[in-house]
Fold this protein.
Amino acid sequence: MAKATRKKQPASAKPGAVFPQRDRTWHPKAYDPGYRSSILRSPKKKLVMIPQTASELAGPVFGHDLIGNKDSDLITNFARSGKSAIGERIIVHGRVLDEQGRGVPDCLVEIWQANAGRRYRHVNESYIAPLDPDFGGCGRTLTASDGSYRFTTIRPGPYPWPNGPNDWRPAHIHFSLFGQAFTQRLITQMYFEGDPLIPRCPIVRTIKDPKAIQQLVAKLDMEGTRPMDSLAYRFDIVLRGARSTLFENRLEGN
Amino acid sequence: MAKQLKESPSQTAGPYVHIGLTPNYTGIRGVYPGDLGKETGAEGSAAITLTGTVYDGAGEPVRDCLIEFTQADAQGRTKLAKVGRKTGKFTGFARVPVNLKTGEFRLKTVKPGAVAAADGGLQAPHITAWIVARGVNVGLHTRIYFADEAKANATDPVLSLVPKARRNTLIAEKTANNRYRIDIRLQGEDETVFFDA
């Protein structure tokens, strides 16, 4: 069996040959005392560098066939029949790219967010704002062959959270990306262009390079709007880029 | 030559990661028929149960975390059918929210076979894990090996990169037939080894 495995995965036999190293200075550090929760949840010892083996390069097997067409519409995917979620209707769309700028096809994009009243639908949530009976707060989709994706949702509001004496999160949508290998796995957050809370937020500020923060700010996209219906925001996401040798069985990108 | 882009920076998954990744678990029903990665497809006598708790630097369970596991099947194969869940075949992928009250996780799976190593040899049986939670700014990547594979562990090329004194943080104890346990410590004495691959 082991022989067959090696035969099928020649790329994985080349140490470090597939994904360039992650730039840890671009990402937040594990320990950032401005974000209080990180203090006790940050490893203190150095990460151990390991080669990329078949284990790290394994593709996701979550069941691509389970993703439904309506999963990406948060305005209706939880709503009662004939109802829709309360709030400012928006389209959030963009492309998932690798570091070479090629679209990542079949990438699982999952999002979650607070409702228009700024409350999450979660057992641990206790914020004063009411739940919207027609809003669940989760959506998912698979990217198309060019890496593009699209959600319809409502714009979440900023909300207070227990960190410093008076900290507010900017309006944001959480994004989870599952591309073509486990090493590409990424969770991040999308912010909205022009939100004055962005530079004040201790979680945003775990990212030190302003250019890196800008990568997480979705831009108003008038061309993508649906007139008399929804504004659009454009948000491209970049995953670690495979060198072209990885996916020997299919053409990647363009 | 195409312009080199930077990977989007990570942000914490926050305290409500379950809404996005396992909505049914947190009571959001009717949106998706089921949570992805709930079952690996492990059945019958080959199934094992792996349990454990993730602890913070104060020794408190991290009750709001979620762990994703990926692994080879019992024969060491990592390229598993994409439609595994529908066909009832083993998928090798699991998404496990810890118990919101106790912080314990429970994974039902099969013990993986040996997987090819980067140098063409074999790795000891192991499960890859990725941990996200409030306070974790970049998802933490680790591995889980098995105490009853001492011989294979001794020559595993990845374990050999880990200082000897810390290797035990990656090895699950066998607590009963087909039952294993490993605790994951994000910080402190016996901090779990985390990887950069």
Remarks:
- Chain B has a mean pLDDT of 92.
